[in-house]
Specification:
2 domains; binds zinc ion; Aminopeptidase; two-stranded antiparallel sheet; 16% strand; 267 residues; alpha/beta; 5-stranded mixed sheet
């Protein structure tokens, strides 16, 4: 990765980190993602109720909470078309590259944050470097800021490649309340996907190491098998991550495969 691209991605990740939004309130996040995928030049962008089956949502906050976050997003310059499409907390988007005949490949990344207070001391890099959460009591403590950046980076890389087929990136809302997976799965956008990938950052391996595995069912009903690659004991959140040291939330552990393919990759 060349230095300017690496710097741009660090900047993107930090911008997401600085403005975390809770589940179903990812209004400005969705708006920023729409801007980015349009810059990349995707062929389709499905936003809000066009990206999810809104009736399948679980864990939607009350109207006052939704309105508070929507208003805050509007004040920060969120796109009006996105605010309309995500009204009532139908957040998230699906970005599609249609590059001719070939397989339909999906990548899912999640976009919401957790109700944690972020550290502000000198040992906490976001505080020192100026990208600590602007939204007190909410923090990207589960790495979804990185996941969004990964989704955008892969999308940009595929767009610039000679890939033939269709590539879809699912920017899924409300992972932290386990409420956004089914709405996205039932949206219709997954139905034609031949190969589906999901990612999660974690602490169980050295920085730069990628661990991969498969545990899925194909459209044909065949099952690809693998067992978890992550350590059996849950990783503990290190204090330098900026939150109180506590077990990694169960919902946020990675589920990758133990017969893992390991490759070294630059972070
Ligand atoms: Zn997570």
């Amino acid at each position: 990765m060349s230095a300017p691209i690496a710097e741009r991605r660090i900047e993107q990740r930090r911008a997401f980190h600085a403005y975390p939004e809770p589940s179903w309130c990812e209004f400005l996040t969705t708006s920023r993602l729409v801007d980015r995928v349009k810059e990349i030049g995707v062929d389709e962008v499905h936003v809000g109720e066009a990206a999810i089956a809104a009736d399948e949502r679980v864990g939607v906050p009350d109207d006052d909470t939704l309105e508070r976050w929507r208003t805050r997003a509007a004040e920060r310059g969120a796109r009006e078309d996105v605010l309309d499409a995500t009204a009532g907390g139908a957040t998230g988007l699906v970005a599609v590259l249609d590059r001719g005949p070939g397989p339909v490949v999906g990548l899912r990344v999640d976009i919401d944050a957790l109700p944690f207070e972020e550290a502000s001391d000198d040992a906490h890099e976001p505080a020192v470097e100026g990208f600590r959460s602007e939204n007190e009591g909410i923090m990207h403590a589960c790495g979804h800021d990185a996941h969004m950046t990964i989704g955008l980076s892969v999308l940009e890389t595929v767009a610039a490649s000679d890939f033939s087929g269709t590539f879809k990136v699912f920017f899924q809302p409300a992972e932290e309340v386990l409420g956004g997976g089914r709405p996205m799965a039932e949206s219709g956008h997954v139905d034609d996907v031949d190969a589906f990938f999901a990612v999660h950052v974690g602490f169980g391996h050295p920085t730069g190491e990628v661990v991969a595995g498969a545990r899925s069912r194909s459209r044909s009903g065949r099952r690809a098998r693998g067992s978890p690659a992550r350590p059996r004991t849950p990783a503990r959140r290190p204090t330098r991550a900026g939150t109180r040291c506590r077990p990694w939330p169960r919902r946020c552990r990675t589920s990758t495969g133990s017969r893992a393919t390991r490759t070294r990759s630059r972070a």
